């Protein structure tokens, strides 16, 4: 005769085994009943394709991202933040006057020259988008007579308006069309749009250093940036 604890354990194991067998039997019967009630799963070739068709939004998203609104605001806030008496500031004054670069001025540009270069380049890019002749010598300042802070702010404002209009005419049908011209050409429309944003961002980075070197915190780095102006 087994001791009582062993007997209890043996009976408990036996009871558990009976319950498991009962559950398995019931599950099998339930599954079989379901299978008999449901039609067979359709073949792969007969299944309805519910996948939504892909939309070609490449051009739309590309040019929404390329819209220079953010770039324009950044350039303008830096230009507005620099006092007019500092527009002639040139880093490393006189250190590169004997250089003869392939393009651009021999010395580092002044703050005013940075703004003028960006504005002229925007007009140049816009002209290339539109199949027009771009302004000459944007790397050396271009033909605009703008000199004062007010004149330069108007110049750069109008240049971004021009490039926005040109970019707005680019779509999925012409985004890979060829572009010719001295500024970033030959290229495609999409490629030139990328250059537009890159170029403005490159000079914005330089302008921020000019501000910092004159003890001015760039507006984008301030807790409460000042509002920008549309009229000067």
Q: Strand sequence of the main sheet, in spatial order?
A: 1-2
What average pLDDT do the residues reach?
Answer: 78
Low-confidence stretches: 6-11
> Based on DSSP secondary structure assignment, what is the total number of beta strands?
2
CATH second-level architecture of one domain: Up-down Bundle
Q: Pairing-aware structural class of the strands and helices?
A: mainly alpha
Helix content: 40-55%
CA-CA gap between termini: 108 Å
Outline, from the CA principal axes?
Answer: extended
Name of the CATH homologous superfamily of one domain: dinb family like domain
Provide the CATH topology of one domain: Four Helix Bundle (Hemerythrin (Met), subunit A)
Highest-level CATH class of one domain: Mainly Alpha
Task: Give the SSE layout.
Elements: H1 4-37, H2 58-66, H3 69-81, H4 111-129, H5 149-168, E1 178-179, E2 187-188, H6 189-213
Antiparallel strand pairs: 1-2
Helix pairs in contact: 2-6, 3-5, 3-6, 4-5, 4-6
